[in-house]
Sequence to fold (585 residues):
Amino acid sequence: MTIVGVFEPDYPVAKEVVNKMFDSFIKQEIPDADITYVGVEIEDGLSESVVCERLTKPSPTVIIDTTRRPRAIGNRAGTLVKKVVRKMGIPTVSATYGKMNGIMEWENLSNTEKQYLVQIPPPGYIITQVIPPFVYKHVDENGTVTFSGYCVELLDEIKEILNFDYTISETKDNKFGTMNDKLEWDGMIRDLVDKRAEIALGPISVMAERETVVDFTVPYYDLVGISILMKKPSVPSSLFKFLTVLEANVWACILAAYFITSYYNNKEKYKDDDEDEKTRISSVEKKVSGVCYCGGEAPRNLSGRLVAATWWLFGFIIIASYTANLAAFLTVSRLDSPIESLDDLAKQYKIKYAPQESTSAATYFERMAYIEEKFYEIWKNMSLDDSLNETERAKLAVWDYPVSDKYTKIWWTMKETGMPKTFDEGIEKVLASKGSQEGFAFIADSTQVKYAVMINCELIAVGSEFSRKPLALAVQQGSPLKDQLSSAILKLLNQRKLEGLKEKWWNKNPFKKECDDSEQQSDGISIANIGGVFIVIFIGVVLAVVTLIVEYFLYKKKKRTHTRVVSVDRYPKDDKYPKDRHRRR
Fold:
């Protein structure tokens, strides 16, 4: 590890301070490290190329910049050094931290200003967590581990701008980083605090408490909130759903009423058998036409007309009831999604819900419950204050609970349910749900929820996002990498390369599945629910064809039986009218 100290020759105190930094502090803090110190003088009036040559010749790992902050724009040493190191992309620490009054004594620098110099990880040592599509992990046959994804390609683009190498390693506890009651951190944030890594890579939310121990670059992704992941409501379909609208005993009664009212009871014999058969058939047809409002020939006698009128009223009521129930059945099956927001989850008890532990989502609900508790304590202390008069006390009186306990109940329910250890465990609990009205709802970052829905057609994101925060890269507090990485990200943003990464890893993701979009489905009746009607008409046509064929052969056989063949040779030629001539054929 090579540390290059840059100072101005007309500012001798700077060289002494840098030497003191190296000898009395860095060596004591890192006694076993192989560290080489090289001092480089940069005076005013040098060209940019000369400054670049002097700084790169020792192949520095870290540059300690002691040049003073320039008071005017020009070819000053401080201006040139800061300009060159920014282009070089080398980690740089300003010993003066931009102070106008010259370099400070090393002992007077704060711990935050000192801490970056104590680290000894290799250049570009990056810690990450596998969160598709931001970071994928691949292991080949030889056991070699490689990473890909949105964030990895973002890092490659930054590498082209800043010209640096990096090594990616996976965090041990598979966590982003949260703070416990003892003010101790875990996850990737802990790796940065303990200086085991220089950059934390992944969909890390920028949170106020994290900013107290690490620095964040400018956001590289849109605001990301928290979403609810549930199992997609299953809409039961049946080809013969139109038959399930009425119960079996109702259908049986309808058929019985149909045949009873269609019974032909006229005892008068018709002169022609064909006319008698036609009347029997028309008696059945009239009942069908009466139901369908097709009209028909009205009966002549009063009793027949009473039966027809009663049947018409009966058919009208049955069809109206059937139509209303069928519409209700189909509508209810599409509206089987009782949960639409976090409030809906909080108001019911059949569906359990929880976020993954040690995530920003879990921290959000824990903090909100804590804030509600504090507000309640403030109100209670104010309302019970003995120094208040009646008027002041009345102002604090309310009809309802003074402070909402919504998040207190939610956080209690989450702890009772038990939080999944990993994201995959949460997905498994959702898929194991019996349906949208009973089971488990997983609360997580919207990007993770969106990806889970994208690769699994059984899942659905419910409601809108809340508690939206930007995503950024995290670095050690006080690290010069913050400004360098931020500058590169802004450059990529202006070149619209970040939009290209979104398009590649979201819309064109190789793991994306083509699922039916329930929001774009028509509200009409699907073939899955009404297809039985076409089956019925198809069966009817087939039966009609079979019946026609049978009738055709029966008719031919009947005609052959009733037809008598007469021989011409049996009668004399002068017999004009034989006896069998008038016999019915």
Summary: The chain is about 45% helix and 15% strand.
